[in-house]
Every structure is written in C-alpha cells, then in structure tokens.
Amino acid sequence: MSSVAATASAVPAAIVARAAPARTEPTPQALARIDKLKARDAEVRQHEQAHLAAAGGLALSGASYTYQRGPNGVNYAIGGEVQIDTSPGGTPQETISRARAIAAAALAPADPSGADRAVAAQAGQMEQQARAELAAERSTQTPSAAAPDSAAPDSADPRRLALQRAYDSGPRAAPSLTVFA
C-alpha cells in the first residue's frame, strides 16, 4: 500500500515541474533591448499624441501604431500614424485656416519626422494657393485705384511675375495625409 502512496505523490510533482518551467533571467543584451524598446514606445506615443492634440477636429481617427515584440514577450510601439483631413475648405479663407491647422498638427511633436515636415510644406503650399485665390477674388471685386504709371514698374518686377505665374498655375488635387512617426 505504501508503494501506491509514493506513486500518487510523485505524479503531482511531475505535473508541477512541467506546468511551471524554471524562469531564466534575461541576458544583459535582452535587458538593453527592452530598455530601448520602452524608450521608443514612449517616444512614439508622445509623438502621435502631439499630432492628435494639435489636429483637433481635423483628425480622422485616433493614433494607430506599429508594434515590435520584445525579448520579454511584450509588444512595443515602434511607429505610428494619425490620419488628418487635408482637404481644402469651401472658401479661400477657410482653406487658409485649415492649412494653418494642418501645418500646426504636422509640426506639433517636439521632433517632427521628415514626413511631418513634408505635410507641413504641403499645407504651406495649400495656404499660398488659397491666398492667391483670395487676392484674385479681391482684385476682380474692386477696381484698382492705383495710377496707370505705378502699375508698369510692378509688372516688370521679376519676383512679382514669378509669383503671379505660381498663383495662375491652377489648383492642385486635394491633398491627403498619413503621418508616420
């Protein structure tokens, strides 16, 4: 009878040994990798939250992240994006306001990425185009009060001519934005 008792007590010990494998300490390299991933995760989340906070009503969604699994089995954010509505407004004034908000959202993080800077530049172009449309509307609404002699030197200015050509080039397609950190 004692042999049965010994066998019965040995089985639970074997099950316990299989159910709870021995934990191994992470290597120094794994700990360093985890620290880097934790720092990157915090940086990415802060970066995307800055975009969201500055975008306000232009944000089409919350932040979405790209993850990497660390040596400890935890997923860490290593990249992210916030989708922002970059369409022009209904009027030149509204487009100017939207372009400024888009640029502010793109440059909101402390360290904007190259993609963020490109979006801000695109918003700047959208604002310039809207300003040109606004100036064209104003010039057609009110006749020029300037004397005919004063118009000739302005039209001969090469900077003014280049600027006018840029404004006369016509509207571009509505821009879209996907920001990656």
Automatic annotation (TrEMBL):
Enumerate the InterPro entries for this protein.
Answer: SprA-related
Q: Which domain of life is it from?
A: Bacteria
State the residue spans of region: Disordered: 135-159
Q: Where is the composition biased (Low complexity)?
A: 143-155
Pfam families found in the cross-reference section: SprA-related
Q: What is this protein called?
A: Catalase
- Organism equals Massilia mucilaginosa
